[in-house]
Every structure is written in C-alpha cells, then in structure tokens.
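Ticket #4471: structure output looks truncated?

Reporter: J.K.
Steps to reproduce: submitted the chain below (274 residues) through the standard prediction queue, then opened the result file.
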Amino acid sequence: MERPAWAPRGIDITVPSVSRIYDYYLGGSHNFEVDREAARKAMEFMPGLPKIMQANRAFMRRAVRYATDQGVSQFLDIGSGIPTFGNVHEVAQRARAGARVVYVDHDPVAVAHSRAVLDGNPDTAVLAADLRGPREILQSAEVGELLDLDRPVALLLVAVLHFIEDADDPYGAVAELSEALAPGSLLIVTHASMEGMPISTEAADGAVDVYRNDVRNPLIMRSRDEVGRFFKGYEVVDPGIVPMPVWRPENAPQDAEEADPYTFAGYVGVGRKA
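Returned output as attached by the reporter:
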C-alpha cells in the first residue's frame, strides 16, 4: 500500500482509524482505502452514517456559536479528529477575534494534519493525548500556555465518548476535566444511541460489530439517561439533552421537522457549570 506524503511515518496504514473514517463520512481527503472499506462495510448495516456525522458537525458549529454568544472565548476540543471545513477554531475565531482553541486527539494522522492546518495560527494548539488521561491533558504545555482555566472554557466532547467503554471510566474522566474548569464553563457533548435509530437493533449491531472487529474500537451506545450522567455538576441549557436536529436549529422548527431520520440516532447537549 502506497503511503501518501501527508501520512506520518510510523503509523500503521493497514488498520482503519475512527478519526479517518469520520473524515471520510464528512467528505474529507485524509483517509486511506482501509478506512473507506471499513466505512462502506458499516454503511451496509447503517446507510445513514454520513448523515449522522454531518448533523453531528452542524450541531458542533451551532454549539460553538452559542458559546461565543455567551462570552466564552476558550475551547478545549478532545477527540477533535481531522480538521475539515468549519471546525471549532474557524467558527469561534470568526465570532470572537482572539478566541483560543486547543485540539486534542490520539490519532497521529489527526494530530499531524491538525498541526499543518493550524501552522501560523497563534491562538490554536494541537495536543497528542487521550480523553482517558485527563490529567495529562490538563497539565500539558499546550493547555497551560493557551488556556486560562480560571476563566470559562468550552469543553467539547463531540463524537468521542461513545468510543470509551464503561471499564475505562468515561464518567470519571469527564468529572476530572470538569473539576478543573471555572464556573460559567460549558460542556458540549454528542453521543451515539440506539434510541431514535431508524433501523432494527440487529442492523445497528452489525455496524457496531464493524467498529469492534475491523476498526478495533468499541462503539458504545448509551441511553439518554446515561448521556445525561456526563452533565453532573452542570445546568443543562434549553432545549436539554435532545436529538441533534432538535438542538437550536438555525431555521426552527422546520429544520428539525425536515431532518433525515438517521440524524435522530443519538443525543446532544450543552451544560453550564454553576
């Protein structure tokens, strides 16, 4: 398999990656054939996966604009993936000059490409780290130099928590990160769920199995109540923990009414720390 010039040395390009598959669903170009093959295999069970990812990214943009409207100008995006058009720094810095963003991901391709895209942008940084190691993130030079944790920060956990099994204590990781944030900080979450899925449980399980067996990454579907537990210590802002199209659609209410059925497969929410 030929290695593209942009692919960092030392990564195994024979194994698909969650962040590169996400990039493929969004129409990006930083993915390998092995990623596209796994994506197509998952889509055999769940054809609406690209629609889900696009709705996920659209919610993220709306949530970042909400954060800037609330006066928040610092963003910590964990599990950020490969930057495609309309990412956090573009939305935030367009709304508030000088907004600062730290991207965190453990995929070497995501980290390398993010650094290339953000070269020359002094208000952004990229950190190679994992959500399961919150202390490493909080004590990193990137966070220390760019973010003032005594002022409100928007913590983004977009399409990442459903890749962490309960055994790895995602609730504890979110709690540790949240504890370090100032009052007025925001938690922005998206999470996959079987609830609202417009296909049978068996078909959804087929897509989950592709992630587990081919991508070697679990895909944990959680209920609305289980997603709500991540917001402990936060006041969830209106309209609450809801499907993606329902959260403050730009042309309410017809956007939500006309949305693809697949985009209701999962929950999103924004919470404000008291």
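Triage note (M.O.): checked the attachment and the full token line is present. Strands lie at 74-78, 100-105, 124-128, 154-158, 186-191, 234-236, 267-273.
Status: closed, working as intended.
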